[in-house]
Amino acid sequence: MTSPHDEPTNDGPTTFYHGTKADLRPGDLIAVGHKSNFDILKKLSWVYFTATLDAATWGAELAKGEGRGHIYIVEPTGEWFDDPNLTDKKFPGNPTKSYRSRAPLRIIGEVAEWQGHAPEVLQAMLDGLERLKQQGAEIID
Predict the structure, then answer these.
(1) Over the stretch 2-45, which tens digit does the pLDDT of each residue have?
(2) Angle (nearest 5°) at CA 113 between 49 and 123
(3) How far from chain centre, in Å, is Cα 127?
(4) At what angle do helices 119-134 and 53-62 cross, to 10 degrees?
(5) Region class of 21: left (phi > 0), else alpha (psi between -120 and 50), else beta
(6) Which domains does the chain have, with CATH numbers?
(7) Cβ(50)–Cβ(97) under 8 Å?
(8) How far apart are CA 86 and CA 73, in angstroms?
(9) 97-135 pLDDT per residue, tens
(10) What SS3 class is residue 19?
């Protein structure tokens, strides 16, 4: 499927990641209409993914639910775009290499070993997100 981001890089094909607490297997699809990682009452209208392990790590750490976080290697099955929640609102361009799609993401593998953020860094992020929530901001869609 063609996309504004399908252009090859000098490093070869791009690997994409999705961080979550959901227990998934290769071949499973992450699709719109399922529960969000960040608001279990809200259904996904987009699926989100990234080309950086750091952004996927945040997804795995911040996702709601029990159990450990997972970082899956995914492939988009349809057209995808820059995530405007990050690229337009927080970071000019797309340095986090964060994307979204209405088409499912296919799980093709899992990152077996990854390191989470330091506890104080994670707590600072959680505190900041809670402050935004108290102000009525929709933090993560």
Answers:
(1) 355 444 343 556 899 999 999 999 999 999 886 655 555 567 78
(2) 70
(3) 20
(4) 70
(5) alpha
(6) 16-134 (3.20.170.40)
(7) yes
(8) 21
(9) 889 999 999 999 999 999 999 999 989 988 887 887 788
(10) strand
Contact (Cβ atoms closer than 8 angstroms) between residue 7 and residue 20: no
Confidence (pTM): 0.79
Residue 22, helix vs strand vs coil: coil
Give Cβ neighbours of residue 93 (< 8 Å, ≥ 6 apart). 87
The two tokens of residue 57 are 């790590």
26/109 Cα distance (integer angstroms): 6
Residues in the chain: 141
